Each structure stands twice: as structure tokens, then as C-alpha cells.
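User: My advisor, Dr. K., asked me to get a structural model of this assembly before our group meeting. I'm new to this, so sorry if the format is off. These are the inputs:
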Amino acid sequence: MKSRSIWCCLMIIAALASLMVVGPAGAAEPIVIGVPTSLGFLEGKESHKVVQMAVSEINAKGGVTVGGQKRLLEVSSMDIRDAAPGVPVPEALLGIEKNILEKKPVGIVVGPFRSEALVAGMDLISKYKTPMIGTIAMTPASEAKVKEDPEKYKYVFRNCLNAVYLVKYLAGTMEAINKEFGFTKVYIMHQDVAWARATADGVKKSYFEKAGWEVLEQEAYPTGTSDFSSALMKARSKGAQVIMPIFDMPQSGILVKQWKSMGVPALMAGFISPLAGTDAWKSFDAKIGGAVNCVFEMGSAIASDKLPKSVEFYNKYKKIYGKELQAGHGPAPAYESVYILAEAIERAGSLDPDAVVAQIKKTDRTGIMGRIRFDEGNQVIYGFDPKETAVAAVFQWTDDGKRRIVFPESLADSKIQLPKGLKSAK
Amino acid sequence: MFLGTIIYGLLNSAVLAVMAIGFNLTFGISGVANFAYGAMYIFSAYLSWTLFNLLELPYWLAVCASIPTTMALGALMYRFVLLRVRGQALSEVIATFGIGLAILELFNYLGFVGFEYTLPVLIDDSIMIGDTMVDWQRILVTGVAGLLVAGLWAFTHYTRMGLAFRGIAQDERTALTLGIESDRIAMLSVSLGCGLAALAATVIIPLGSISPSEGYEVLIKALAVCIIGGLGSTGGVIVASFLIGFAERFTDTYISSHWTMIVSLAAILLVLGFKPSGLFGRQKELEERI
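Assistant: The format is fine. Below is the predicted structure of the whole assembly, which you can bring to the meeting.
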């Protein structure tokens, strides 16, 4: 009797153990989505969170259908630290390769932070045939490579703003300022990195020179600079009416604080990444009222009632993570990328990279950042009407700490207001 | 614009003097080149930020807690690491640089990177001097620089401990024969230097933001000021701060901001080439004369 009960116990334990090893009969392996990016930086951190949010939503509905079978999604992240100063590109690429080899993702979203890492990593992506929908690095050089050798680089897509479209948005904002106030004197300040230099040069050539503006000065600042007092004095003494900043370093918010403290009578309008989210008001001691700033994708750090899906996304993030989105670049396209990839897998009916890539290319989806379609360089098409293209947003901080969208017209809540002490030239 | 450049040159000089005085004090007394100085500056700033923002302590209390904590960290660093390599200059540099690197990279690893890491200004207002608007925080830094120099002078001339500091700085062996315990004084000098770094962070960080990379920059600037002025010379620190402070602002205004960061490094090279002891340094004075 005693030996029988021991045998029974042993058999139950063995059965349980085999269940633990094998798993439930018939359950398919989850589909892995890789997120190798700079997770320590705000844009990477929040993009990673929204990817998890999108994956949870898809999994709550049963997952993705592949060949008639429902499969769950799983996120595998990797901090490649390419945004940190001094981290060499090969080290970042090693992180991407590790993520691909160890986790075997069906696709990568978000991807490298710095353009240098994106361009250098394109060969790696092609080698392992892993579709990638990048949402942070902005250089048009990646599109040029895709166009140059479409068969080799067809796996690389970008779902966020690129430097060319940023130039169009900044030029559009300057045109609106000129039309409204008659301003024609600009002082350009930008970070001394490739994308910011290219953007500043782009706006200068494509708009300021053609529209007859006087560019009083164009100054480059090394990453890490946190004292802009001399440039602000120069801008003041040269009679600048507009200061156009282009920066993505954390210290750059100080520029606006100094502009306010020094009472420089010029409109601050451009791109300063730390100014995008609501937290900026407190971080910069409520000294940013009047600054005009660009958010690269609708839904990232700002939402518009005119695009209800952006409001839904913004509120959903706040509900889940207890905080509003602060990154003006990355989160919205990262969230959309998960859906783009999932829909492409379902349409392809398989996980074959070539089949999935062919379906990503056919994407035509209207979501939180407007209508998403890719051009021949695999770049999402941007414009000013969310019914036709993806959209960015330019907003202005008010003196009571609110943000009002001022450009493009299709999304604008109000017109640009001049800060105290600055008069219209009209 | 010229008057504005002069005013901001003066304010920038005060910032540099406050930044460098702690490094100089430690080296002048104990001979330890504390390469963890920038990391201590950043450590104290993050500690104040954490106490103020996460634990929601009043700002003055956060600062009052972070300065002594940084001093204690400096003392521990001396007691458990530097004491063992005391007198071996290269080992001291490697040890302190390693500790500094570890502290700064730890903050990087923990994700302490972002625009939200900043400290509030103590006086939130500006005044007009001529046609130049200046914020009170910068004027406060200038005041702190003046008080620090005067306070340190009084401390080293009129207090028992200050006199012991000077005794060790002048001749360690003779000081030992007079009963001054050199290891204890050296530990206090490292600790006081770290405390001055923490004080500098409290008044300077509100003008910018906290980031691990700032730690390296503070170290480079402190080194530049001390090397140019002459390691260990307080007068040298003041003169060098003025030289670099004005050179930076004039470069910004009349050449380009692009070159500003090179100013201090170029000045180090120049001084090392022509007067390796620095403008007021006496370390290698004899060799230089020969």
C-alpha cells in the first residue's frame, strides 16, 4: 500500500515536470519583436514603453494570426547606448547583432538613435534579413542607400520624421511668422552634430535665402554646451527678430531659460527637444512661455483634438504609466510600427522576411500620426494634412504653462503670439 | 555688446573660480590631484536632486545634507583608497580617476540622463546693468566666489586647523615633528575639496543641468584653471579664472562658440610649453630657472 502511494506521487511529479518542460500542448512560440536602442535616453525609454503597450493590446486580442494560427508577441529590448557621448558605433552595432542572434526577432522597431549607427548598421540588417522600422535616427542618407540598392536594403524602413521633412516644417513655421509679423532677421543656433547642421543649412538654403531673410549669424555649439549668454547678447545687439534653435541635447532647454532671463526681444522658434513635454514647464522654472517648438510626430508628447487617435494614444499612455509622454520624437511612430509589423505579418501569412517586407512596403494605415505610407526610400511620407500623410506639430508655450499647436494650419489651435516686449514689424 | 561681454566675462570667471577652488585646495595641501573631483560635483548635484524631487525635502535641507555627504565620501575615498598609495602621484591619479569614472558611469547606467535633472535657482530674478540683462543667480555665484576666497584665506591664517593645513602644505616632515598628523590633515583636505565641489554644484548647476558628462567637463575646467594658475596657488586660481573666463566669452562673441571649448585646452598647452609650473606655481620653479 505504502509503495503504491509512493509510485502514484512519483508519477504525478513526473507528469507535472513534463508539462513544465513541454508547455501546454499546441501553444505556438511567441513572435519576438526586437527593440535595440538607447534605452537610457528619454526618446528610447518612452519608445520602448509604447512598444510594450502596443504588444499588450495585440496580445489581449489573442495575438497575430500567422497561417491560421494565433501567436502572441514578445518584446526583446537591448540598450545599445549609441546616444551616449563617446560610445563608438561598432559597440552599438554589436548590441543590434546580439539582439538579432540571441532573440531571433521577426522584426526590429525603434532601432538606432544616432544616424551614424543607423547608416552603418544597414548592412547588418540586410545580412540577417531582419525587417526594421526605425523611429528615431533621422538622416536621409539611409533612404539614399535604399534607393541605390533596393534589393539589399529593402529591410530598412523609417516611420518618423527625417531631416528633409523637418526642414519643411521649420520653413513653414518661418513663413507663417513672416506673414503674420513681417519678421525677416534670424539668428540661427544649432548643435554641432550632423543632422542639426544639415537641418540649419537646409532651412537657410531652401527658405531664408529665397524668401529674402537676413541670416545674422549661424552658430554651432558642441554637444554639452550649457551657457548661451554670449550668443543671446549678440542676437540682441544685432537686432534679431527670430532666434531659430536646433538642438537635441538635454542641456539645450537652458537656452530658452537664458533667453527669458536676459529678456532678449526676439521670438524663439525652432526645435529644442527638452521643451516638448509638459514636464518642461516645471524643469525650466516656468521660464519658457512664448517659445515655439516642434514635435516630430503627432502623438509624441502632444495630441490634437483634430486627430482623435492621437488623443486616445496620449491618454492611454498616461493611464498605464501614470505620466504624460515627454519625448517629442519617437513614441508615436514606435507604437504605430508594432501595428504596421503585425498587420504586415498577417497579410503575408508567414514570418518569411521577404514576404513581411513586401507587405510593410504596401502599408496604408491611418493612425495617431495621420496617414502612413512609405515612399521608394522606405521613408514615411510627411505633409501638412493628416488625412493624406503623416504629420508633425509646431506648438507655442503660453505664459501660463499651456501648449497651443500653431502649425500646420490643419491642426492649429491658435496663431503664434509675440512674447512681451517684442513688437510686430508690420 | 562690448560691455555685455565684459560683464559676462566677469561672471564666467567667477563660475570658473568656484569650480576650481576645491581641486586647488586639495592639491595645495595634500599634493593629491583628485581626479574624482568632477564626479563628486555631479554626485552632490544628483543627491540634492534626489532628496528634493523624490523625497520632497525642502531644498535647503537637501543641500545641507548633500554637502556633508559628499565630504564624507571624499574622506572615505582617502581613508580606504588614497592612504594606501599616498605619495605615489601616478597611483593617486589612476585611483581617483577610476573612482570618478565609476561614479559617473554608474549614474549613466542608472539612467540619470535627461533635462529634468536640474536644481532650482536660489534667486529667480534679473537686473539690467547698462544694456545687459543679468540674472541674480550669476551674481550670487560671483558673491560666493568672493566669499570663498576670503573665507579660505581667513581659515588658513587664523584657525588652528587652517594653520595645520598650511604647515603640511609648506613642509610635511617639519609639520610632523611639530605634532601635526599629516594623514589626518590630508584626509580633511580631500574631504574639504569635495565639499567645495558640492558647494560649487549647488550654485552653478541651476544655470545649466546635471548630467554625467558635466562631471568630465568640470574636471577639465578645474584642471585648466589650476594648471594655468599654478597647482596649489590660490592667487593663481583667481588670475587663471579671469584669463580663461574672459577668453571664453570673447571667443564666443567675436570668433565663434564653436571654438570656446578649445580655449581652456589651448591655454593649458601654452602654459605647459612656456612655464610648466603655471603662472604662480612653484613646483618646478628651480628646474625652470636652470
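One thing worth pointing out at the meeting: The longest helix of chain A spans residues 2-22.

User: Perfect, thanks a lot.
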